[in-house]
Amino acid sequence: MSTNREILGFRAKLAAGERLVGTFIKTPTPHMVEIAALSSLDFVVLDAEHAPYDPPALDLSIMAGRAAGLDVLVRIPTATSYWMQQALDLGAAGVVVPQIQSTQAAQAMARAARFEDGDRGYSNSPRAGEYGTTDMPTYIRNADGGAAVIIQIENPQAVDNVKEIAAVPGVDALFIGRADLAVAYGASDVAAPEIEAIARKIEDAASANNLPVAGFYANAQAYRAQGSKGVSMIVLGSDQLMLKSAWAAAAEDARAQ
Q: What is the count of structural domains for the chain?
């Protein structure tokens, strides 16, 4: 990424270390994004890795978020330039990239998100280019400055290489993948001492490179128990988890009357 590139939008808030709170959306409908926009959330992440999102579903949900003024990110299903291109062309504010294990893989994803100093294929005809109405210099400047690339650290290979991954130009944040880390290391749960130690290692690598850190927590209570001051991008639960919890609490309350 060029050193003089202006950082824009959600990416600028992330770089500034603002405390940002969002959630995963796992139900592929734009209505969930519209509802989230009516709350005080700062962003949502469409979970195309673990939910049935295809490009048309991403299209509608990103459109809903942009119309409502809510930053929409996409956790792509695989670390490929195809999915990076799809998410950014549709107008996503950023991309969470799973299953990165090496510096080379992180470099490839950072380059796939940029036109200049990168490999992103150019067309201003999608939503991100305002359907062809944005001129080439403006589109390149806004796209390169605004696309947040968040690398998920979730396996032993990534942990071993985390210092080098954090130093890759164009990587904007590291995401602590506690659940996958717990499975990979054979831990009892996501808050096991060995996972806490790994989380601190990831935070230290990010801090050494002036990068923010993202993390997932089932709810605010889990964040208070597992989170740290090093985590500024907080993903709380999901639409499905929040609905289930709210419905269960409402039913219990009604039965208690």
A: 1
Q: Is residue 4 part of a domain?
A: no
Task: Grade residue 5 by pLDDT with cuts at 50, 70 and 90.
Answer: low
Judging by beta carbons within 10 Å of its beta carbon (0-12, 13-18, 19+), is residue 209 exposed, middle or buried?
middle
Q: What ranges make up the beta strands (E) of the chain?
A: 20-25, 43-47, 71-75, 94-97, 148-153, 173-176, 213-217, 231-238
Let me know if residue 177 belongs to a domain. yes
Task: Give tens-digit pLDDT for 70-127.
Answer: 999 999 999 999 999 999 999 999 999 999 999 999 999 999 999 999 999 999 999 9
Contact 162, 202 (CB under 8 A): yes
Backbone dihedral angles phi then psi of residue 91, each to the nearest 5 degrees: 105, 15
Distances (CA, A) of 50 to 26, 76, 232: 8, 9, 23
What pLDDT, on a 0 to 100 scale, did the predictor assign at position 6? 85
50 labelled catalytic: yes
pTM: 0.95
Task: Give me the amino acid identity at 122.
Answer: Y
Whether the Cβ atoms of residue 233 and residue 14 lie closer than 8 Å to each other: yes
Q: From the candidates 50, 123, 138, 250, give the one annotated as an active-site residue.
A: 50
